[in-house]
Amino acid sequence: MSLGLKRGTVQLEPHNKQWEEVAVQTIEKLKAILGEDAIDIQHIGSTVIPAIKAKPIIDIAVGADDFNQVLLHNEQLQQEGIVYRGSDVEHQLLYVMGDMENDTRTHHIHVVKWNGTEWKNYIYFRNYLNSNENAALQYQQLKEELERKYADDRIAYTKGKQDMIDNILNCK
Fold first, then answer.
1. Which long-range contacts (CB under 8 A, 24 or more apart) does 83-91 make?
2. Cβ neighbours, 10 Å, residue 20
3. Are the C-beta atoms of residues 104 and 7 closer than 8 Å to each other?
4. pLDDT (tens digit, 9 = 90+) per residue, 5-57?
5. How far is the C-alpha of 48 from the C-alpha of 99, rounded, in Å?
6. Torsion angle, alpha carbons of 46, 51, 56, 59, to 10
7. For the domain that residue 136 is a member of, what is the CATH number?
8. 141 half-sphere exposure, CB direction, 13 A CA radius
9. How many domains does the chain have?
């Protein structure tokens, strides 16, 4: 199974059932470390949508009430290979996993306010694409076009998806 990409790059791969197994193992590890400081932990992102291709990076949302409580676990998370990267997106903490020496990422772990806007958006978007195959395939088509244009510019790739994501979220 292929898992991970060099930071900043984009490469889509066909869905791989093992991604779910890896996500479940990571979620269990997070639950063991964070305990009650994580209200819910969910596999999100394209790797959880069987109908489409995805970057081979597992995205996980951790719903928490108090970011400061989560941050208290940073040392233990680091010992398990879960590295705190800061808060580059408003209202979120980002953790990553992978081969840091080779700048490769296998997981993005997004800590957000449980039941807040970001949490609801992650869950709604995942559920919407999993229950609407036509929309999922349109999303894949857009991702493939963006991959061709921006294989070495993940920021441009991500920005290119935003209008479609916003359109889907506005249907809530």
1. 91/116, 91/117, 91/118
2. 15
3. yes
4. 999 999 999 999 999 999 999 999 999 999 999 999 999 999 999 999 999 99
5. 22
6. 20
7. 3.30.460.10
8. 7
9. 1
